[in-house]
């Protein structure tokens, strides 16, 4: 387990070339197709300590919410503001985001609870609540899951907050080796290897209902192969509109059809890439071989 002292030492002394994130980048592991599966999620503001696994939270209200949501196929994230503000309970209540991140038709609402005792009554429906239209970035800063997320995620969140972005630290998003990682609401696109510039660019694109393909891992409501195909078409055509493309379900490698709402259609040859060097899946882990999916030829419109 990563302790607070370990994280503090890492923050003070870890070089940019250390950790699983740097190893993954050196190995040439691609970002496309690595977005976590999180079609439906609830993100709850929680200012206390975060255990390694949210399911094991010492607060029974949080643990019970996790169990309820898991039974409904909903992901639970804990969130907090960066810095000192993220360790203080607000007198006006705690923020809760409820999201249905259907590709091209995502809906996110904001609710407020007085404390964790109210969580049992949090609905998972996006009917009701305040619609979220301005972009929000959740940045993984879950140090007890991985040191890279603490070192790089916390620093990024602080920089973006200083730039007046609407940013929250959050628990494990998946893919520590791509730290800093983030999830943009309400569009539902995940990003990796972010810095201040690319983080702001992702938020700017989302403010206009779009996607910034730079540093994008894919949409959390799509399969890995569909993520790869969609991003390949965006790169091939320059289409930025988050709701413009519909991707055929794709369980694995092969031709994947991507259609535009104006009738244009492309086919992307998605195939395994065996040219990526082994990398550790997280800090402290052994090197593991990886065969990610990659986009080949894009044909059609």
TrEMBL record:
InterPro entries in UniProt: Aim32/Apd1-like, Thioredoxin-like_sf
Highest taxon in the source lineage: Bacteria
Pfam families hit by this protein: Suc_Fer-like
Protein name (Swiss-Prot/TrEMBL): Sucrase ferredoxin
Stretch forming the signal peptide: none
């Amino acid at each position: 387990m990563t302790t607070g002292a370990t994280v503090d030492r890492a923050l003070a002394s870890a070089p940019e070339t250390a950790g699983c994130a740097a190893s993954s980048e050196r190995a040439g592991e691609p970002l496309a197709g690595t977005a976590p599966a999180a079609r439906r999620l609830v993100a709850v503001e929680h200012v206390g300590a975060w255990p390694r696994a949210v399911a094991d939270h010492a607060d029974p209200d949080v643990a019970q919410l996790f169990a309820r949501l898991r039974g409904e196929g909903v992901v639970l994230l804990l969130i907090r503001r960066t810095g000192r503000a993220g360790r203080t309970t607000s007198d006006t209540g705690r923020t809760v985001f409820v999201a249905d991140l259907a590709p091209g038709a995502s809906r996110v609402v904001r609710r407020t609870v007085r404390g964790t005792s109210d969580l049992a009554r949090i609905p998972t429906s996006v009917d009701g609540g305040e619609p979220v239209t301005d972009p929000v970035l959740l940045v993984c800063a879950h140090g007890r899951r991985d040191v890279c997320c603490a070192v790089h995620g916390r620093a990024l969140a602080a920089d973006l907050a200083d730039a007046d972005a609407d940013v929250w630290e959050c628990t494990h998003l998946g893919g520590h080796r791509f730290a800093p990682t983030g999830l943009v609401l309400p569009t539902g696109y995940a990003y990796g290897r972010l810095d201040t510039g690319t983080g702001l660019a992702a938020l700017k694109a989302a403010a206009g209902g779009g996607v910034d393909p730079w540093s994008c891992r894919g949409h959390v409501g799509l399969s890995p192969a569909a993520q790869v195909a969609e991003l390949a078409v965006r790169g091939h055509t320059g289409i930025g509109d988050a709701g413009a493309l519909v991707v055929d379900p794709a369980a694995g490698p092969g031709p994947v059809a991507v259609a535009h709402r104006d009738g244009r259609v492309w086919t992307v040859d998605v195939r395994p890439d065996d040219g990526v060097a082994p990398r550790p899946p997280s800090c402290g882990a052994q090197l593991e071989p990886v065969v990610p999916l990659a986009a080949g030829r894009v044909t059609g419109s």
